[in-house]
Amino acid sequence: MTASHSGATAEHEPGRVTLALLSARVDVVGPSPMVQGVAALFPPPPPWLIEAPAGLRTTVTVERDADTHGRYHVRSGDDQWLLTSIGDAQASAEALVTTALAEQLRHRLLLIHAGAVSNQDACILFPGPSGSGKSTLVAALVASGMRCFGDDVVLYDRERQQCLPFVRSITLKAGSPTLLSQQWGQQIEEPAAARFGETPVTFLTPSADAWPAAPLPVRFVVVLERQRGVTAHLRQLSRIETLTLLLSQCFNHGTLGAAAVHAALDLLRGCACMALTYDDLGEAVRLVRRLS
């Protein structure tokens, strides 16, 4: 797993890259080096995650300001941001691409604010709000050899009752690179770019073989609780409190309505629901790996 600066995509031409996930398509347009920098944050999905386009496409534009050196515009639809570094522009474009891909899939899949990994034949899902430690733990688990289903958005197929990965680089906020550096014994730089000029982030790109070869059912739903000074431990959660949390972290609960509730109930059927309380990242990794 490496910090991402450049890479390949499914379809590209000078000044334009088309990023694909299932039937969703997002075109990133702008000067070729800037476009390729954004595309590098979205590794090519496994072939089984590419379908025929659904027809709807979104365009995200990144470009230099014509009047002021060192200023960059990022646009999507009617929304526009003016950023003060190329890193900020690319990090902001990544967030817009992620949103656009998810938006195109919101009517057919449950979009869960969660991280997820797998080992062998089942997923471990970590639903939770921003700042709960999902990305840091997923990065550490993937580095330990588990498969990556995503660090912030996970797709759940209601018909097959299986999870699918949301393929993009793992996004780390300030402090997480230091924790991971201590865990791995190798230096990961703290964020140098900021989404929309506000949230500092850095990106780690899982290797091609870190993504799963097929969709998988969820067997464990684990809620993360970071607490200083504690020895890492797992405790059981009731299905009702897990369901409440899970629905609160569904991006498209409002769109799907009752179907989202039924999908969440299906997801939890046969799952073990628990909370992981921890301070030390290495201890948390060891406990999660024992689950699988």
Which structural class fits the helix and strand makeup?
Answer: alpha+beta
Count of helical regions: 8
Looking at the structure, what is the overall shape? globular
The biggest sheet amounts to: 8 strands, mixed
Uncertain stretches: 4-12
Task: List the secondary-structure elements in sequence, H or E.
Answer: EEEEHEEEHEEHEEEEHEEEEHHHEH
- The averaged pLDDT comes out at 93
Residue share in helices? 25-40%
For this entry, what is the oligomeric state of its chains?
single chain
C-alpha Rg (nearest Å): 19 Å
Number of strands: 18
Distance between the termini: 22 Å
What proportion of the residues form beta strands (DSSP E)?
A: 25-35%
What is this entry, summarized?
The protein is an alpha+beta fold. The protein has helices at residues 32-39, 86-105, 134-143, 176-184, 239-248, 253-256, 258-268, 281-291, and strands spanning 2-3, 11-13, 16-21, 24-29, 57-64, 72-76, 79-83, 110-118, 123-127, 147-150, 153-157, 162-164, 170-173, 193-195, 199-205, 218-226, 233-236, 272-278. The strands form three sheets. Strands 8, 9, 10, 11, 12, 16, 17 and 18 form an eight-stranded mixed β-sheet that branches. The protein has a six-stranded mixed β-sheet with strand order 2-3-4-5-6-7, covered by helices on one side. Strands 1, 13, 14 and 15 form a four-stranded antiparallel β-sheet that branches.
